[in-house]
Amino acid sequence: MSSQLLNLSAMNLFPWYFHSMRSGRGRGLKRALGSMRLPGAMLLLLGGASLVSAQISVTGLADRTYEYDTQVRFTVNAAAGYDYLAVLDTNTIPVGQQITVTQADYHELRVWATNQTSGAVSTALYRFNVTVNARGVTENGLPPFEPLPPIPSTAAEVEGAVLRLMAPQAFPQDYPIPVVAWVVHGDGHAVRANGTVRADGFPDIGIKRGVGSGFLPAAADNDPVEYAARLHGLSASRVIVPDDSTTWTNVSGVLSGDRTWGPNWRVAVTTNLAIPAGSRLTIGEGTIVRLSPYANITNYGSIIINGTVDRPVVFMPVSPNQPWGGFFLPASSSSLQATGAIFTHSGALKSGFAGHRKEQCLFYCDNSPTVTLTDCAAISLDGQFGHAFNGGTFTFTRFLLHRAITGGEYTGASFRVNDSAFLEFPDDTPDFVDGDNDALYLVSGTHGFTNTLFGWTKDDGIDSGGGGAGTFNYQNCWFESVLHEGNSLSGQETASPHNDKIVNHYDGVFLNCGQGVEDGYGAPTGLVQRCLMTGNLTGARFGDNYDWSYYGFLTVRDSILVHNYRDVWGVNFDDWTYRVSRMDVQNNLVTVPNTNHPNNTVWDPALHRAELVPFLTIPPAAPVGIGIATWTAQGTIAEATNRLPVRLSSFTTNDVAVSYAVRSGTGATLDSGTLTFAPGEMVKWITPNIPNPEAHGLIAVLLGNPVHGEITGNAGFYYLTASIPPPTPLVTRGARWRYRDAASAAPSDWNTPAFDDSTWPEGPAQLGFGENDQATVMTDNDQITSYFRHRFHVEDAAVFASLAMWLLRDDGGVVYLNGTEVFRSPNLPAYPTAIAFNTTTLSGQNGENTIDTATLATTHLQAGTNLLAVEIHQQSATSSDLSFDFELGGQPAPPVNVANFGDTLLLYWFDSGYVLEQAAAVTGPWSTGAGASPAPVLPAAGQRFYRLRKL
């Protein structure tokens, strides 16, 4: 039997007619067949037939199958005396052949069998999900999604705006200087533009939709730091005076009564600080508060921070790699009111705290405290931003939260947020994470957000989750580049009441998200009115990716839902139906007709472009930025026929166009074309037509000739021949190890090179007991921890850029190199928690024959003899098996490769941990060249030298 492989692209997967086929009645069949545009003869045959029950056989597929990992293979079987039609999603497939589906998504297979004698028609429906193992159940029923990177805006997009900087006027020497930047209109609202704030001699600060933050290098002397920032035609400057000689006032313990830290004080919190109920601490403008590692401030009274944008109060650590703790606000009397404050690097403790995440919070709240932040920022936090157990009033105005593990979880609280932004949780990278990295997780309470930005999160923008009740209102808010849902709604899984959570979105924007608004499990009531959703995987959704209970209701009215993979969707995996009865979707503009929601209008760019104007914060006629929307500008030759995204910096009312050319390293044009973006459309795709890319060796895709736009992002993408040196083996699998299997603690210096292990037994890996694959069988002494040591030799440690580690462990492992811990398995308590001989793996996280891989720094590698020491921990003393093997390789620095594209010389390498430096002489001085690979080098007078430097 032959086999056919189907890897369905997004263009073929719009299952918008699914609901009409649920019942199996004749009217539903006719309606669905009409929408599928089947051949006319087939329509006549089936349209006049009635549906009757009959057996249809499909091998390898079951209806309502929640999860097929990676792929599914099935065959629609043919029986004598019947004519068949089989349709997978919107594609007709052959009968009698094995079909392989690899596209991760929700799929529907419909089969019709027509009796050749009687004309009677039988039908069957098979609903199933193909999933991607790495993404778990959170994305069942959806294709994999990674947000595209932002494209810089043009100067015209920020015309008339103001660049507003927040930075201290004076700052201690030897400490990185925090800077917060906003791009705003005269009314104070942010301009939703992207770009880079630059200043000669200083690091760039990225701007996402009007806001960003960063750090200037620490001042090393008394010379003023003159920071003259610019973004296109906008400019702002700050002169930061280093303290001549900082005198710190040490504080700790209990601060009773009314205390004042006056303007421009330098305060060192050396240990934990407490403010009793009825006491008040007032902090003056320009004050710098330095907190020792793990130091906390417990506040039962009130803290008043009187900073300004020009002279902010800064809370900072002793050094960026030694975070302080946070604020504890444990009572209704606890109050923190801040104006003009910057908080950096809190969250020292990595475990032990509440919520979906366990890292320490900047604000850890209980019993309804009050936190008011105006013209403030919390940037580069090492833990969570906040957590509220039991209420709390949070009022934020012109506030930025930038880079944290999560914004935190809040139960029974009240948020009032205006003109603020919550960005990057925990960072801005394309990799998938399922770790509850939400901007905010609001369980219950009454909340209102206006003109607020949520974006670049690994999980949700706002998760309105859990079983609590509340009302959540969002006005003019912007959700972008959220890997899962812009706003995820869920509630108590009961049929009544239905109003446990009411979530309303008015005049908002959702773009480049996994899903815009998802009305999920439980009984949330969601409203989307006068909103714009474009460039998302799903715009508005009833149901979610689990198989739980759904009693809520979703209303979508007067909105624009265009150029999404699915504009509106209603399939849930509780009963596998499209819940039209739980959705009111009317009077919207959509990309394609949807028979489940017929009372909408198909988007006509020429007719409807003016409808976009209310959502624009840039001039409507402004040319927008264009760029290749990839996280790097290079790939391998094997990827040269993959789709390549091109994105705009903003949606626009204009028709935008850009041409592209695909060229070989010899300059030959292999393919070309023009992309045209209709109003409201932000993403187009180039699929290079190159029959044999390997024959060309080097290929470039180049943009040019923009219309109603400017090329502000990557203008080129290069497919290059990879040259990556293999790792040098340092320790191989199966090596011989000294080991200790006693049920007691090893000597305290067991992991150091000086320890004498000559009395320990020795044998080749795999070592362990309880299984049949060990080369060396150890004794099972009911020990929780077993210890292993191995020496290896390195001639020159400087030749290695990194170390590649491979660890087989059952159950958990800790690795030491020359006495220093360099790795710890994730099923053991997180660093810096001490590991003892009786430390077991975490509850429910057994590590049966688990492989850990990691890239390790070469910091502790030395020329000559090195010692590897590994301890393997059991789930319990009575664990029946133990396994251990190990491999270590030294990865040399990547070579710099050279390619020639016409007049341009291209330098490239395949390790993002390196940047290119250049100099006029081989002796230096060296400066950063193009930075990331690839680096175009244009002909210039005189010779230049180039080298790679590890970041």
Helix count, DSSP H or I runs of 4 or more residues: 3
Mean pLDDT: 90
Given helix and strand content, the structural type is mainly beta
Fraction of helical residues: under 10%
Low-confidence stretches: 1-53
Shape: globular
| Major pleated sheet | 26 strands, parallel
Radius of gyration: 31 Å
Distance between the termini: 55 Å
Record field, number of beta strands = 83
What is the percentage of strand-forming residues? over 45%
Walkthrough of the structure:
The protein has 951 residues and is mainly β. The protein contains 3 helices and 83 strands. The strands form 13 sheets. The chain has a 26-stranded parallel β-sheet that branches. Strand 5 and strand 6 form a beta hairpin. The longest helix has 11 residues. It is globular. The chain starts with a strand and ends with a strand. The N terminus is likely disordered.
Give a quick summary of the entry:
The protein is mainly beta. Helices cover 2% and strands 45% of the residues.
Strands, helices and their partners?
Elements: E1 3-6, H1 26-36, H2 40-47, E2 58-59, E3 65-69, E4 72-76, E5 82-88, E6 91-93, E7 98-101, E8 105-115, E9 121-131, E10 162-166, E11 170-171, E12 177-184, E13 195-197, E14 205-207, E15 211-216, E16 225-231, E17 234-242, E18 249-254, E19 258-261, E20 266-275, E21 280-283, E22 288-291, E23 297-299, E24 302-306, E25 313-317, E26 327-329, E27 335-339, E28 341-344, E29 361-365, E30 370-374, E31 377-379, E32 384-388, E33 392-397, E34 400-402, E35 408-410, E36 413-418, E37 421-425, E38 440-442, E39 445-450, E40 453-457, E41 462-464, E42 470-475, E43 478-482, E44 485-489, E45 501-506, E46 509-511, E47 515-519, E48 524-529, E49 532-534, E50 538-542, E51 553-557, E52 560-562, E53 566-569, E54 583-586, E55 589-590, E56 601-602, H3 605-608, E57 624-628, E58 634-636, E59 644-648, E60 656-664, E61 669-677, E62 683-686, E63 699-707, E64 709-711, E65 716-720, E66 728-731, E67 736-740, E68 762-764, E69 767-769, E70 776-777, E71 785-794, E72 800-810, E73 812-817, E74 820-824, E75 850-856, E76 864-873, E77 882-892, ...
Parallel strand pairs: 1-7, 3-9, 11-17, 18-20, 19-21, 20-22, 20-23, 21-24, 22-25, 23-26, 24-27, 25-28, 26-29, 27-30, 28-31, 29-32, 30-33, 31-34, 32-35, 33-36, 34-37, 35-38, 36-39, 37-40, 38-41, 39-42, 40-43, 41-44, 42-45, 43-46, 44-47, 45-48, 46-49, 47-50, 48-51, 49-52, 50-53, 51-54, 52-55, 55-56, ...
Antiparallel strand pairs: 2-4, 4-7, 5-6, 5-8, 8-9, 10-12, 12-15, 13-14, 16-17, 57-59, 59-62, 60-61, 60-63, 63-65, 66-77, 67-68, 67-71, 69-77, 71-76, 72-75, 72-77, 73-74, 73-76, 78-79, 79-82, 80-81, 80-83
